[in-house]
Structure formats: structure tokens, C-alpha cells
Write a structure and sequence with these properties.
Largest sheet: 6 strands, mixed
Strand content: 15-25%
Shape: globular
Oligomer: single chain
Radius of gyration: 29 Å
Distance between the termini: 51 Å
Strand order of the largest sheet: 5-6-7-3-8-9
Structural class: alpha/beta
Length: 626
């Protein structure tokens, strides 16, 4: 059954239709990705379905039993809202009830006012009637996994990564049937992306998303829709299947075009001999030839390539000696030293807020260390791609923006290009060069910003989240460029596919400011990290799960539990027992000799999730009994 049906949808773009005759439907529980080049209308299509912008034709029909949540690329928010106010602003009735109940609990803890107590009791009664206690635990679990602890924080004080987590929490807490997700992995750290990946795979919600993260896309989605030349086409399979089909289609189209050209050469010879068209057959043959001549030709992709000459690096590139950086009491970088060598491709990893951007700012001199020394070589020229490009005037055109850096650009082979010709090489041709920056899509803005950066011919590239908002095609071109780049390269990215391909060495920043090295790929590091976490979990379980029965509390004087805590304690022991039983069942399944790798993977994911839930339950149980 369709949860949503799209019929003959169309939308006008800057100079011509963005897309037209878009028709498709989504089934309940289906996981679908929407792909296409920057500017083709992916985000616009999501906005139309979400009701944020109108279409210029066609209809969007939503099942009467369905509800929709929409995560925009850059969601709007009131900077003066608290996290609590933002997260629960669009929630369903149960979510709003839980929010009101939590606030009443906080108020009652600080006041014995009878009005507040009456309100608390009323809300408690409603929580029982709505059976909202399990949903409350699910909300707490989502907030906990996303690292959202202090709900009183103001939205305006959050980092980009934390903003994304809060916005994602809002969408998941709404608990709607259809999730429209526009670049959901942007700004998220790798552990959060992995959690979201597992969450969506196991969820029975319908998902329709735009993402450039190819591992994420490949794991979750079983259907791919591609917008190309204003039309939409479905590929029933994951992203790997799409790539295989796309390659086969391209080869078939080329073969067909070659066959037509061969037929035309023969027919043109016949025409040149000047046959008379008196007969019906001769006239029909001529008409057929002219139809072939005037057919829609196979449109070749307008490929572009990143290319710079690059200033030659000297023997001394960048030397870091025992640098430290703190903000107040928080140590962000602690006693870090490193000697950069020519041709290094380094990936920089760490959780959101760990200090990755701070370290990049220290490398480039945008910030000074509290102690230690940073010494740059005379020939070292940085090209620093920032997460949020500083484009002060978006009313100027693309061409004007590039000309601010140079009107003539010299390439490695000595060729000189005008700004106009250079932009054409980067896929900005025709009228788009004279469009204002504010009319570009998010990905197009990032691409033109990258063009301007490369015009300076840097030999040390520092890229802070370069993959955000870029389409998969642009990422492929960027990857090829970076693989051939002869200078030094430091990248911060949470795109695992991108990092696996580019980074040869990793620098890992922990939340205490320690920076350690890892020789290997991003996926290898994630695998090692998971193994270490599993070992720690097993050690913790040895201490807390030696018996299947929940240990009885020691008889001792302890603090009096609040009504809410008493209610929680009544349910948590049975929840622990249920989780333990589920874990035992999974252990039996995993040791049964099953050879289906998909089942084994799913069981392994469930086992890990159960372990985490149990650990959280035991921790909370101990807190309540302490």
C-alpha cells in the first residue's frame, strides 16, 4: 500500500524547468534514496512533498493514515529556544505530554506549590492512560545516544554537529510514518552515523532521503530514484546495484548510437546518389532518414575536473612541537607534536566538539596555541576549505566571485584560462555563470567555493567537511583530484567511503585533547574501535550479569525516591529481565551454525544494541538504588 503518491509533479528552475512529469509512489516501510547532480532539484522535491514549497504542477497525495517528518539540510530554528523547546515543538500528542510531564517533575522538585502538584498528578494520570512510559524511555534513549543531555541549553550556543543532532532528535521523536531526510549525515560524527544507520535499517518507518554518504545509502536503501535531465527513474536495488545498471545502460546507449550512425552513413550515401522520390517507398525512406538526422542525440555528460599547478613544497613543510590549546577548563589539544612530510594524506577523526576544527585553525595560523610551537616552511601555501564558507556577498554572480581572485588562471601544462573558461571546466557553463550565488543550490555553492580556493594554487590542502552538500558525481571527481594531488593533505570528513579512498593515515582526537595516530583506513579504525568497545562491554557484563536475576539492593540507609523514580524502578527490573531473555535467545541463534550472512549481521547488530540497552538499564538501576 502506498504511503504517498506523486503524480506529474513539476517545478520551474532558474532558466528552465527543474523537473517535470515526476510520478512515483512510496510503500509503507520502504527505504528509498533520491540521487542526482547538484542543482537537479533533489532538495526541492523533498520540500514539495513536505509542503514547504509549492509545485508548479502535479499532485502529492498522502495516505490518510500517514504522518510526515521532514529534516531539511539547514533547518530553521529560533536561536533563543532551548533544546527542549525545539525538540518537542513539533512532537505528537504523546511527545508533548511527556515533555509537559518532565517539566512538571522539574518544577515540583523546586517547589511544593499545590497548583504544580495538582498539575503533576493530572499529567501522571494522563501518562498512565496513554501508556506513555515506554515511549518516554525511547525518547530518553534517542537523546542519550545522540549525546543530548542538557535540554536547557540555548539553540544559539550549539556547534554545527550538535545542531544537527538536535534537529535529528526532533524528527525521530515525532515518531511519524514517513521520514523525509535531506543529507541526514552532514555534520554528524562517525559513531552517530553508524547508530542512525542501524536505527533506520531496523525501523518500520518509510524513509525517503537525499544523501552523499555511499556506505550509508548502500546499507539502508533498497530502491534508488535518480533525477536526470528533469526526469525521474527508478532502480529497484541498493546503490551498488544502481551503479552496475547505470554502467550497463550507458554502454547500451553508446552501442545504439554507434549503430544509428552506421545506418545513417549508408543512408546518406543513398541520398547523395539523388534518387527520385516519386514512389511511396522512396519517399518513406527519405522521411525515415530525416527523422534519424533530427533525432534526440545521446547527451554526453558535461564532465569537469579539478586541476591546479601547485607551488613546489620545500624540505620544511609544517612542524608541530608540543602544542596545547584549552578553552577555560577544557583541554582541546594536549601536548601534540607532528612533522608533516610531502605527499601525506591524513584523515582527522574525533567526536563532535573534540577539537578537529580548532586543530586545523592552529595549523593554518588562524588560532594560536597556548603553548608549544608551530613552524611553517617558506614555500608552504595553505588552501583551507572551511565547513561554512565565508561568502560575504551572495548577490554577486558566480563569475564575479571567481574574478575576485583572478581573471586569468595558469594550469599545470602552462595553459592560461580565463575565469569564464575555468568555470566551464568545473561544470559552470552558460547562464549559470551570470546567476547570483544566492540562487545556487547548497552543493553548487560549495563547488564554486572550492574553485576559488584552488585558483590560489595551494600545495597544502586542509579540507574541513568538504563532502557536505556535494553530489556523488562531484565527490568522485574530487576524489580523483585528491588522489593525484602532490602536496600535503589533511581532511576532516565523516564520509567513510571518501575517507577510505583518500586518507592513508589517521590522527584521532579524543575528548580529553589527546591526539594519537593510526595507520590504516577509516573502516579499519571503526572496526578496531568496535572491537575495543565490545571487549569493554563484555568486561562490564561480567561484573553486572553474573546472575540472570536482578541483584537485591543491600540493606542500607538511602535517599528517598521521588514518585517518578519509584515508578521507574517498578518497571526497570522487569525490563532488564526481558532484555536478558532476548539476549539469551540471540546467543542461541548466533551459535546455531546459521550460514545466512544477512541474518548473522542482523543478529550481531541486535546483540550489540541489547548489550548497550542492558548496560544503560543496569547503570540507571544502580543509580536508583544508591
Amino acid at each position: 500500500m502506498n504511503i504517498i503518491s506523486i503524480n506529474k509533479l513539476e517545478k520551474h528552475g532558474r532558466e528552465e524547468p527543474l523537473f517535470s512529469d515526476i510520478t512515483f509512489g512510496l510503500e509503507f516501510g520502504e527505504k528509498v534514496a533520491l540521487i542526482g547532480k547538484n542543482g537537479c532539484g533533489k532538495s526541492t522535491l523533498l520540500k514539495i512533498i513536505a509542503g514547504v514549497v509549492p509545485s508548479d504542477g502535479g499532485t502529492v497525495s498522502i495516505n490518510n493514515d500517514a504522518s510526515i517528518s521532514y529534516l531539511a539540510q539547514d533547518p530553521a530554528f529560533n536561536p533563543n529556544d532551548t533544546i527542549r523547546e525545539f525538540v518537542f515543538k513539533r512532537g505528537n500528542y504523546k511527545a508533548r505530554l511527556i515533555n509537559d510531564y518532565e517539566k512538571a517533575c522539574e518544577e515540583l522538585a523546586h517547589s511544593k506549590d499545590t497548583t504544580i502538584e495538582k498539575r503533576f498528578n493530572d499529567l501522571l494520570h494522563q501518562m498512565d492512560n496513554e501508556n506513555a512510559w515506554n515511549y518516554e524511555q525511547e525518547i530518553k534513549s534517542i537523546l542519550s545516544v545522540l549525546g543530548i543531555e542538557d535540554l536547557s541549553q540555548m539553540m544559539k550556543g550549539l556547534s554545527g554537529g550538535m545542531l544537527k543532532k538536535v534537529e535529528l532528535a526532533q524528527v525521530l521523536i515525532e515518531d511519524n510514518d514517513l521520514l523525509l531526510l535531506d543529507e541526514p549525515t552532514n555534520h554528524l560524527d562517525i559513531s552517530t552515523i553508524k547508530w542512525l544507520e542501524d536505527y533506520l535499517v531496523k525501523s518500520n518507518k518509510t524513509v525517503f532521503m537525499v544523501t552523499h554518504d555511499r556506505y550509508f545509502l548502500d546499507t539502508i536503501c533498497t530502491t534508488i530514484y535518480e533525477i536526470e535531465n528533469g526526469k525521474i527513474k527508478m532502480y529497484k536495488g541498493n546503490f551498488t546495484y544502481y551503479l552496475e545498471k547505470k554502467e550497463a545502460e550507458s554502454a547500451s546507449l553508446v552501442r545504439n548510437e554507434e549503430k544509428i550512425e552506421s545506418i545513417l552513413r549508408t543512408e546518406m550515401e543513398w541520398l547523395r546518389r539523388g534518387p527520385k522520390a516519386r514512389g511511396t517507398k522512396a519517399k518513406a525512406r527519405k522521411d525515415s532518414i530525416y527523422k534519424l538526422i533530427n533525432r534526440d542525440k545521446l547527451a554526453e555528460d558535461k564532465e569537469f575536473a579539478f586541476e591546479i599547478s601547485g607551488k613546489r613544497l620545500g624540505s620544511k613543510i609544517l612542524e608541530i612541537e608540543k602544542i596545547n590549546k584549552s578553552y577555560g577548563d577544557k583541554s582541546v589539544i594536549k601536548n601534540f607534536s607532528y612533522l608533516f612530510k610531502k605527499g601525506e594524506r591524513i584523515g582527522l577523526f574525533g567526536e563532535n566538539g573534540a577539537g578537529k576544527t580548532t586543530l586545523l585553525d592552529l595549523f593554518t595560523g588562524n588560532k594560536k596555541p597556548d603553548s608549544g610551537k608551530i613552524s611553517r616552511g617558506d614555500n608552504t601555501l595553505f588552501g583551507y576549505y572551511k565547513q561554512n564558507p565565508d561568502i560575504t556577498n551572495e548577490e554577486i554572480t558566480v563569475l564575479q566571485y571567481i574574478k575576485e581572485s583572478a581573471e586569468i588562471i595558469k594550469l599545470p601544462d602552462g595553459t592560461e584560462l580565463t575565469a569564464t573558461k575555468l568555470l566551464e571546466r568545473f561544470g559552470f557553463d552558460g547562464k549559470i555563470q551570470h546567476s547570483s550565488l544566492q540562487n545556487l543550490s547548497g552543493g553548487e555553492k560549495k563547488r564554486v567555493y572550492l574553485v576559488k580556493l584552488l585558483i590560489s594554487n595551494p600545495n597544502f590542502l586542509i579540507l574541513d567537511e568538504p563532502t557536505n552538500d556535494l553530489d556523488i558525481y562531484t565527490l568522485s571527481v574530487l576524489e580523483d583530484f585528491l588522489m593525484k594531488f602532490g602536496g600535503c593533505l589533511v581532511i576532516v570528513s565523516h564520509d567513510r567511503y571518501f575517507m577510505d579512498k583518500i586518507a592513508e593515515t589517521l590522527l584521532i582526537i579524543d575528548n580529553g585533547g589527546e591526539v594519537s595516530g593510526f595507520t590504516g583506513s577509516c573502516s579499519e579504525y571503526i572496526e578496531l574501535k568496535a572491537e575495543l568497545e565490545e571487549e569493554a562491554r563484555l568486561q562490564a557484563n561480567k561484573k553486572t550479569t553474573s546472575s540472570k536475576e536482578v541483584p537485591q539492593p543491600a540493606v542500607k540507609e538511602k535517599r528517598k525516591l521521588s514518585f517518578k523514580e519509584t515508578k521507574e524502578l517498578e518497571t526497570i527490573e522487569s525490563e532488564i529481565e526481558t532484555l536478558e531473555n532476548e539476549k539469551t535467545e540471540l546467543e542461541i541463534k548466533m551459535s546455531s551454525g546459521e550460514s545466512d550472512h544477512t541474518k548473522l549481521r542482523d543478529w550481531s547488530i541486535q546483540f550489540d544494541e541489547l548489550g548497550k540497552k542492558l548496560q544503560n538499564k543496569y547503570t540507571r538501576w544502580e543509580e536508583l538504588l544508591s
